[in-house]
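Morning F.,

Quick status update on the modeling queue. The single chain you submitted on Monday has been processed. Sequence for confirmation:
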Amino acid sequence: MSPRQFAIGRHRHDTDTASQPSSLGMFMVSMELLVAAMLLAIGIHFLTVATEPDAVAYGMFVAIVLLMFDVVRRVINIARGKAPA
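Structure tokens below.
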């Protein structure tokens, strides 16, 4: 077996790529922000229309808060280099 074939068969982990943010992590952050903006718009609609129940809007606001906690957690993990590959 030649050295080239042996090197191709091995899985090599570069230390430089571990500190780079993953594209999936950044995509998830942007998608969660987009979903939070949509939930905010729908929640405001439910609050402003008198015939719609306010409990739905409050539930959406709780979901927005949970999404924001997850966004902050993901951004911190990306900044520390612990983002999933």
